[in-house]
C-alpha cells in the first residue's frame, strides 16, 4: 500500500474509534496548564497511527504531539501527526476536533489529511492534485476585499487582546467577522474550502498546521509565518493563512508583520 492510501485507512479507523470514545473524568490531564489538555484518547490514537505507519514504513520519521519525535535524525520522509487537534472541543463538546496527518519527503509535501471526525468529512490533498473534501473538489473563496473577509482564529483572547496585538485587533475590527472553532487544522481547512477567508493562529505547532497547509495551498490558498517569512516545517510558529497569495500579502502590508515573542 502507498503512504497516501495507508494514511487514509488509518485516519478513518482512528476517527471511527474516536466517535465511539466516551471520556471518564479521570481520563483528562493538564499539560502546561488548565487550558492545555490531554486525554487518554490523544495518546491511544497517536500510538495507533504511529504503529500503523511504522509497521509499513519503518524508516520514516514521525513528529507528533504526544510522544517524542521518532526515527532518523535526517530522514527522507517525515510524518506530522496530531491525533486530536481541538482536544478541548473533544472533551467539552465531542465535536469540532480533527485527526491531522501530513507527510513530507525531502522537504517537499507529499499529502495532507484532516478528518473532521464528528462530521466524518475528510479533507485531503496530494501535492499537485488539487484539494478535496470527500469526493468534492474544494477551492478558496478568492475574496480580498478586507471588509468582506471572515477571519478564523483558534484563540480569540491571545490573538487579539494580549499586549502587542494592536494591529491584529485593528484587522479584527476591519474584517466582516471573527469566528473561532478551536482547532488550527479545521480552521485552515475552512479557508481551503472557502468557508473562511483568513486564519491567524499565533501558537501553532508543525502537527497542527502541516497537513492543513498542503490542503490549503492545493485549494489555491497561501500560508506564511505571521512575520511574513516562509512558514517553517519543523518549528512552532505564528501562522497566517489566506485564500490567496494576494490576500495574504495585502494583510501583511496593511496590518504589519507580527513577530511572535520568544517563548
Ligand atoms: P490541540 O487541541 O492539539 O492542543 C486551539 O486551542 C488550538 O491551538 C488547537 O488547534 C490546539 O491544538 C492548539 N493548541 C492548544 N494549546 C497549544 C499549545 N500550548 N501550543 C500550540 N498549540 C496549542
Ligand atoms: Ca492535539
The percentage helix is 25-40%
In terms of DSSP E residues, the strand content is 25-35%
What is the subunit arrangement here?
Answer: single chain
| Number of helices, counting only DSSP H or I runs of 4 residues or more | 8
- How many strands appear in the DSSP assignment? 14
Low-confidence stretches: none
Mean pLDDT over all positions = 95
N→C terminal distance? 41 Å
> SSE string, helix = H, strand = E?
HEEHEEHEEEEEEHHEHEHEEH
Largest sheet: 7 strands, mixed
Instruction: Identify the bound ligands.
Output: adenosine-2'-monophosphate, calcium ion
Tell me what the structure shows.
This protein has 263 residues and is an alpha+beta fold. Helix content is 34%, strand content 29%. It has eight helices and 14 strands. Strands 3-4-5-6-7-8-9 form a seven-stranded mixed sheet, with helices on both faces. Strands 11-10-12-14-13 form a five-stranded mixed sheet, sandwiched between helices. The chain has a two-stranded antiparallel sheet with strand order 1-2. Helix 1 (3-20) packs antiparallel against helix 2. The mean pLDDT is 95. Bound molecules: adenosine-2'-monophosphate (2AM) and calcium ion (CA). The site of adenosine-2'-monophosphate has 17 residues, from strand 4, helix 3 and strand 12. Calcium ion binds at residues 42, 65, 82, 84-85, 87.
